[in-house]
TrEMBL record:
<feature type="transmembrane region" description="Helical">
    <location>
        <begin position="367"/>
        <end position="387"/>
    </location>
</feature>
<dbReference type="GO" id="GO:0005886">
    <property type="term" value="C:plasma membrane"/>
</dbReference>
<keyword id="KW-0812">Transmembrane</keyword>
<dbReference type="GO" id="GO:0022857">
    <property type="term" value="F:transmembrane transporter activity"/>
</dbReference>
<protein>
    <submittedName>
        <fullName>ABC transporter permease</fullName>
    </submittedName>
</protein>
<feature type="domain" description="MacB-like periplasmic core">
    <location>
        <begin position="24"/>
        <end position="243"/>
    </location>
</feature>
<dbReference type="InterPro" id="IPR003838">
    <property type="entry name" value="ABC3_permease_C"/>
</dbReference>
<dbReference type="InterPro" id="IPR025857">
    <property type="entry name" value="MacB_PCD"/>
</dbReference>
<dbReference type="Pfam" id="PF02687">
    <property type="entry name" value="FtsX"/>
</dbReference>
<keyword id="KW-0472">Membrane</keyword>
<dbReference type="Pfam" id="PF12704">
    <property type="entry name" value="MacB_PCD"/>
</dbReference>
<keyword id="KW-1133">Transmembrane helix</keyword>
<keyword id="KW-1003">Cell membrane</keyword>
<feature type="transmembrane region" description="Helical">
    <location>
        <begin position="282"/>
        <end position="302"/>
    </location>
</feature>
<comment type="similarity">
    <text>Belongs to the ABC-4 integral membrane protein family.</text>
</comment>
<feature type="domain" description="ABC3 transporter permease C-terminal">
    <location>
        <begin position="287"/>
        <end position="397"/>
    </location>
</feature>
<dbReference type="InterPro" id="IPR050250">
    <property type="entry name" value="Macrolide_Exporter_MacB"/>
</dbReference>
Length: 404
């Protein structure tokens, strides 16, 4: 096979060849980045969050009665809610919180050791730390594990309006940022005195694993009006039963409340990545359409130019070229075009990745992904060109004697 002759033949129709190469490159860029987005989303959904997602039930609610302006009344209702929910078969623990993990925003505060206020300038993540207001049962409800000291108990609850510095619990990564490998127990911060450290869970999925900073403060009953979520730890296999009863149980205590949603932590995680999953599905659909269009273009390209070269091919057949030689010629021409498209596609892949990374979190393209996508492009081009190639191989030598 004369590669030089092939290249010369392509240059004679450089406009249509260039368009096909550009289309192949764009298709490759779309395919690779769509696969990356899909794999990233699947990995995020399957990543260990540090919680038993399937067995944590969340109730989002808000009072509608003016009686709740009386904080003592509000507290009494919440305590009754907790008692009634704890009696439901399958419920292990009940608590409430002002916000949920697995979110980017929420109640954020700065934190630093009182003896080292410059810490938050060195580690800027200390300027936006999630602060959870909850009671002593929040650790059980969310499945938090204590790695140092203890979790908050009822004695840590402050009186309303108290100026006393609160006891707090912090996450393990926050403790390492503030104190390294030294003990954090008894240390004083601008948010309170540390009495315990809990193992990290995924508080903010967009942050690195070693930056999952959080502070827990037992002030739920002091600021109950911001406790918008009830959190229930449920026995395995009992979620459906508990879920069906939780709303009517709450409204039976006091009906003047809106219950917005009842959902599991697993559903909360899926909701967080809903946009990414939808975008990944859309991109995969576009990939399928682009591959189909590219295959059609490859077929049309081969069919059109073969029809223009009948006399030339007839001459080759008259000079002794076999059918398989002609078939190989057409397929090699297509492979050369696909190869050039993939070379240009390498730049398009990187360009698409950089552009998409400005708007969504996206991993960098890898060599294996590029090679697999290139293989798909080659196979699609081969299948699309096969029929024109077979037809071309059947051109009789007598065609060379006709006037075209």
């Amino acid at each position: 096979m004369n590669l030089k002759a092939l290249v010369k033949s392509l240059l004679l129709r450089k406009f249509t060849t260039g368009l096909l190469i550009l289309q192949l490159a764009i298709t490759l860029g779309l395919v690779v980045n769509s696969v990356i987005l899909s794999l990233d989303t699947r990995e995020n959904l399957s990543r260990d969050t540090g919680m038993d997602n399937d067995n944590i039930l969340i109730v989002s609610l808000h009072p509608t009665s003016g009686d709740y302006r009386d904080l003592d009344y509000y507290r009494s209702i919440v305590r009754e809610d907790f008692e009634q929910l704890a009696r439901l078969p399958g419920v292990k623990s009940v608590s409430a919180a002002n916000q949920l993990p697995l979110r980017t925003r929420g109640a954020l505060r700065n934190i630093y050791d009182l003896d080292n206020p410059e810490q938050e300038r060195i580690d800027t993540y200390l300027q936006d730390v999630k602060v959870f207001f909850g009671d002593e049962n929040l650790a059980d409800a969310m499945g938090l594990s204590v790695v140092e000291g203890r979790y908050l108990n009822q004695s840590d609850q402050r009186d309303f309006g108290s100026d006393e510095s609160p006891n707090i619990v912090i996450s393990e990564s926050l403790k390492k940022s503030l104190y390294g490998e030294a003990s954090a127990i008894g240390q004083e911060t601008n948010r309170g005195r540390i009495v315990g450290v809990i193992r990290d869970i995924t508080f903010n999925p967009t942050l690195p694993a070693d930056k999952q900073y959080a502070v827990f403060d037992n002030t739920l009953m002091e600021y109950i009006f911001i406790g918008r979520y009830y959190i229930l730890s449920v026995e395995p296999g009992q979620m459906a039963s508990v879920r069906n009863k939780v709303s009517e149980t709450i409204l039976a205590v006091q009906p003047e409340r809106d219950i917005f949603r009842v959902f599991t932590m697993a559903e909360h995680l899926e909701r967080y990545y809903r946009d990414d999953k939808g975008l990944a599905d859309l991109f995969l659909l576009l990939c399928g359409l682009m591959l189909l269009v590219t295959a059609i273009s490859s077929y049309a390209y081969a069919q059109f130019h073969v029809s223009r070269q009948k006399k030339y091919i007839g001459i080759r057949r008259a000079l002794g070229a076999r059918k398989k030689d002609v078939l190989l010629y057409v397929l090699t021409e297509n492979a050369l075009v696909c190869g050039l498209g993939c070379l240009l596609g390498a730049a398009v892949v990187v360009g698409f990745n950089i552009l998409l990374s400005q708007y969504i979190s996206l991993s960098k393209p890898g060599l294996l992904q590029f090679l697999l996508a290139s293989g798909i492009i080659f196979i699609a081009g081969l299948v699309a060109t096969w029929l024109p190639a077979v037809k071309t191989s059947k051109i009789a030598p007598v065609v060379a004697t006709r006037t075209v």
